[in-house]
Amino acid sequence: MDKVACIIVTYNASRWIYNCLKSIDEKNIELEIIVIDNNSNDNTITIIKENFPLVKILAQSENLGFAAANNLGFKIAEENRAQYIYLLNQDTVSYPDSIYQLVQFSGNFDSKLGFVSPIHLNDSGKKLDYAFETYINSYTCRSLISDYLTNNIKKCYQIDFVNAAAWLIKVETIRNLGGLFSSAFYHYGEDVNFVQRLSYNGYKNYILTDVFVNHCRAERQGKINSAFVRKEAIIRAKTELYNINKSLRSSIFEVFKIAIKNLLRRHFINSLLLLIMPIKDLQKIREIRKSYKTSKIL
Question: Rounded distance, CA 258 to CA 274, Å?
Answer without folding.
Answer: 8
